[in-house]
Amino acid sequence: QEQLVQSGAEVKKPGASVKVSCxxxxxxxxxYYMHWVRQAPGQGLEWMGVINPNxxxxxxxQKFQGRVTMTRDTxxxxxxxELSSLRSEDTAVYYCTRRSPGHYSFDCWGQGTLVTVxx
Amino acid sequence: QSALTxxxxxxxxxxxSITISCTGTSSDVGIYNYVSWYQQHPGKAPKLVxxxxxxxxxxxxxxxxGSKSGNTASLTISGLQAEDEADYYCSSYTSxxxxxxxxxxxxxxxL
Lengths: 119, 111
Description:
Chain A is mostly beta strands. Helix content of chain A is 0%, strand content 52%.
């Protein structure tokens, strides 16, 4: 069935960058916008941004502007999210999630990638 | 863009019905019928249980139902079961420059 598989956990030092990948399978990759949502330990969900896998066009939450970059590789049905200038507050589980067309909801989620920022 | 407001916790006995509220503003819940609800078990990814205010995805139990009135959306779980114990988050499309906002989350406990 439709699936999103993310890369593994990362440990980074403050000031470093991290890149998380998300590989889609069993559906038409370019037909669904892909979003990134993060969840700090014990906290709620936070929307980070979106990429159109067809055109590569992106949109980011103002909070992450200048620090986040989302890209896609249509040959491997993969989207990537890179976050730079990491700080301890960026410690969180990062999810990629597919937007259901026409409904503005997220109907398929990756398993999550824990990014730990610690000196 | 502030998070949508949900009660921190709701509890009920097996077989009972519970309702979780999700209060937003006239910039999100109040003007769009794009409210969705997600169930999240500990250590797991969220799962869509309601979209478009009141629609259930294929495979989701009909014990889950959604509604909206003004700036407040609601999720009702009827015939509460042990497996329903989880965190629940609402979400809405918004007219702000951050197009999606999530709720603060509600922990559901089955007594």
